[in-house]
User: Which sequence fits this backbone?
């Protein structure tokens, strides 16, 4: 296998890796917001259920969760799972990362001084305005470093999609390594992850800078 | 009459913080509330501004009854929309300023008038600049709170409260978080407002200031109003033993 | 898009090769198996083996009819020569193909084109298992099992769908219906009751691979040596079960996720031997000799 064929086949895997990465972020970040609200609900039962959800998502390997999301519908309800492979991967990743993001958001929100809420209340802001205009922008600034960590972990976690036989970049690397008895695919994979994370760190740093105008 | 509070009672758990407080503030009046820490004066202010809910009693702003006492003796608040109307009558300046750190000075002042009161941006901008001039902060309009001194931040907070054109302005220990050399600039602003006949209730530890600026001084201790009256009377010739003791401690 | 990717990555790779971490992959290699291990190969198998196993097609328990049809088609392909033709392409396993035309009774076999043309047969396999199923040099899916299965579908008139799966999840994939069979150098021994088995089309011998100059000549010589094996393989199962006594003489049984890594450890001298089936081992040796 020539280097260019190797890169071409891995390139396709890289696109799939990117698809998992971006779709997971697009779904898990807002979902994490909802989970965070449920976690802070004034109804005890909702809080407790959300806590259990977060505990499961954070306390079990993502690999098992992916298996459960994909095969669950068949084993529990006898449903056909044809064509469900990719959606299951995205659901699995998004649900898992939403739990982590929810806890990051919660930490950020709890770090906002009570005085900010009181000032907003006295000035007459309603609760929606208070959240989106006053609290959220400050939360974003506080949580950016933790979010960066999580996003970098996600880049590397995408390789777990192979659990559901989705040929993303790293599974292709393993397959090519096996058929060619070569470590080269792993070197390429390593460089890919490094570059991807470098880009992530760069982008996040720019965003952090954007919020640097106040302390 | 701007504010009337009758028979206010408030407990935190088993700790009774306000024990049957009644208070009336008339238009143009400047009322200082003094007293040792834990006397309930800050809680009284927080109850008046609805940051805390009272257990029983009534609160009336202008002609609007915000809180009544139900048949069972419990306080009953009016509905959300009516309460929002009442909230327009007052402003509050916090001990810790509580400016929005991500907004510039100008935006801190303009945002609520535009988005809460739905007033025109141009008009609000003009008024905000006017207020900043008054606070002697015109040059810092585009600065962020973190770039300002504590005294400057508190003056912005006052401008922010005034921008909503309240009938009455509450101050909760407005100089307690400031370095001593910065308290003067904030007190000067409050004094200026008093001259303009702004109705104000000030919880403070600044005795000379309370004596010089207010029309009436209220001394609170252990959840009661112990003594109130003309500042010269209260400071110069206190009637109650507790007041004498407190003022004596303060003069040392 | 693909080209763009390849180009930009090639640039990065060139840098990394200069930096001294390059592999040997741009040698423009031809078919992996054309040059079988010569007598002067650097790695050899011991004469003694660990045991023999048979590779068969695994179906869901109860899928008797499907198993019979597919097995019949495989036999028909033996008779018309396709089976051997495909075998020619994979010299490493040619000697292990156990179906012979003279043993087959033609009468019971399904006729060519007798299958339902609207049916698509879903072939479940591991893409990590050369030479039975693996990624070809041109990046396509191939291997002996893949080609044979495609030939079966063509013979019967069925559609063919490749379902490469994660080996650890093979049973879930099969039971959930994502695939109709497991056909990927799949060992029957020890799993007799877990599947409805189709025909055994290949044998394999589990052996011990060592460096030719290692001085290890017999299983007894392995005492005190470090031996590597891939997890979830027959070689591993044997060392845990029927050959447990032998395994106990090793200084260490090192379990790898893939043989690729184990083989690199052997080359680096980090381990002394690898327990592996002969065909997969021959594939590693042949590829290394290039």
Assistant:
């Amino acid at each position: 296998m020539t280097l260019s064929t190797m890169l071409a086949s891995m390139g396709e895997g890289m696109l799939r890796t990117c698809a998992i990465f971006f779709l997971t972020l697009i779904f898990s970040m807002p979902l994490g917001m909802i989970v965070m609200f449920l976690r802070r609900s004034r109804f005890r039962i909702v809080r407790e259920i959300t806590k259990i959800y977060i505990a499961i998502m954070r306390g079990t390997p993502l690999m098992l969760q992916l298996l459960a999301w994909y095969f669950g519908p068949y084993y529990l309800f006898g449903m056909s799972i044809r064509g469900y492979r990719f959606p299951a991967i995205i659901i699995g990743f998004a649900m898992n990362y939403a739990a982590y993001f929810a806890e990051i958001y919660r930490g950020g929100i709890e770090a906002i001084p009570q005085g900010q809420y009181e000032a907003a209340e006295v000035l007459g802001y309603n609760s929606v305005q208070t959240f989106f205009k006053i609290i959220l922008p400050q939360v974003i600034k506080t949580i950016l470093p933790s979010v960066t960590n999580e996003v970098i972990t996600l880049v590397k976690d995408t390789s777990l999609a192979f659990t559901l036989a989705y040929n993303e970049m790293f599974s292709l690397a393993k397959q090519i390594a096996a058929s060619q008895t070569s470590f080269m695919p792993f070197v390429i994979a390593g460089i890919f992850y490094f570059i991807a994370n470098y880009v992530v760190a760069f982008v996040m740093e720019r965003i952090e800078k954007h919020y640097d105008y106040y302390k | 009459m701007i504010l009337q509070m009758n028979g206010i009672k408030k407990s935190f758990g088993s700790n009774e913080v306000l024990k049957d407080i009644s208070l009336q503030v008339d238009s143009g009046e400047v009322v200082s509330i003094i007293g040792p820490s834990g006397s309930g004066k800050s809680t009284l202010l927080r109850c008046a501004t609805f940051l805390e809910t009272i257990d029983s009693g009534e609160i009336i702003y202008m002609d609007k009854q915000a809180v009544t006492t139900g048949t069972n003796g419990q306080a009953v608040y009016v509905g959300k929309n009516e309460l929002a109307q009442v909230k327009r009558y007052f402003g509050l300046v916090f001990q810790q300023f509580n400016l929005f750190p991500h907004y510039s000075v100008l935006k801190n002042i303009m945002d609520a008038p535009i988005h809460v009161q739905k007033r025109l941006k141009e008009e609000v901008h003009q008024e905000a600049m006017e207020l900043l001039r008054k606070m002697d902060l015109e040059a810092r309009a585009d600065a962020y709170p973190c770039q300002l001194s504590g005294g400057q931040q508190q003056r912005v907070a006052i401008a922010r409260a005034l921008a909503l054109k309240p009938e009455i302005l509450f101050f909760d220990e407005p100089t307690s978080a400031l370095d001593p050399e910065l308290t003067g600039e904030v007190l000067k602003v409050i004094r200026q407002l008093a001259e303009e006949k702004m109705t104000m209730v000030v919880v403070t530890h600044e005795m000379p200031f309370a004596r010089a600026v207010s029309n009436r001084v209220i001394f609170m201790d252990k959840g009661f109003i112990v003594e109130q009256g003309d500042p010269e009377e209260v400071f110069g010739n206190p009637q109650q033993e507790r007041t004498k003791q407190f003022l004596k401690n303060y003069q040392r | 898009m693909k080209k763009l990717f390849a180009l930009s990555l090639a640039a990065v790779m060139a840098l990394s090769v200069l930096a001294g971490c390059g592999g040997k992959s741009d040698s423009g290699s031809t078919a992996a198996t054309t040059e079988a291990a010569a007598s002067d190969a650097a790695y050899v198998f011991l004469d003694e083996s660990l045991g023999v196993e048979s590779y068969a097609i695994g179906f869901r328990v109860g899928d008797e009819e499907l198993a019979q049809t597919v097995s019949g088609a495989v036999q028909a392909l033996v008779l018309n020569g396709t089976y051997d033709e495909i075998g020619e392409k994979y010299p490493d396993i040619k000697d292990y193909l156990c179906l012979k035309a003279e043993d087959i009774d033609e009468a019971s076999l399904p006729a060519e084109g007798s299958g339902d043309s609207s049916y698509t047969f879903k072939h479940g396999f591991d893409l990590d298992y050369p030479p039975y199923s693996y990624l070809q040099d041109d990046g396509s899916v191939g291997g002996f099992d893949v080609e044979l299965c495609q030939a079966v579908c063509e013979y019967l008139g069925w559609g063919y769908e490749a379902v490469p799966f994660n080996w650890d999840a093979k049973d879930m994939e099969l039971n959930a219906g994502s695939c109709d069979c497991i056909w990927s150098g799949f060992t029957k021994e020890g799993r007799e009751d877990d599947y409805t088995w189709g025909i055994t089309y290949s044998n394999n011998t589990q052996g011990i691979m060592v460096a030719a100059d290692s001085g290890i000549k017999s299983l007894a010589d392995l005492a005190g040596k470090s031996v590597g094996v891939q997890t979830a393989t027959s070689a591993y199962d044997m060392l845990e079960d029927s050959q447990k006594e032998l395994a106990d003489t090793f200084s260490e049984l090192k379990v790898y996720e893939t043989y690729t890594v184990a083989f690199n450890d052997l080359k680096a001298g980090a381990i002394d031997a690898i327990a592996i089936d002969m065909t997969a081992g021959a594939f590693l040796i042949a590829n290394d000799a290039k």
About this structure: The mean pLDDT of chain A is 92. The helical segments of chain A are 3-39, 44-59, 62-77, 85-110, 114-122, 127-157, 169-180, 184-210. Residues 3-39 of chain A form the longest helix (37 residues).
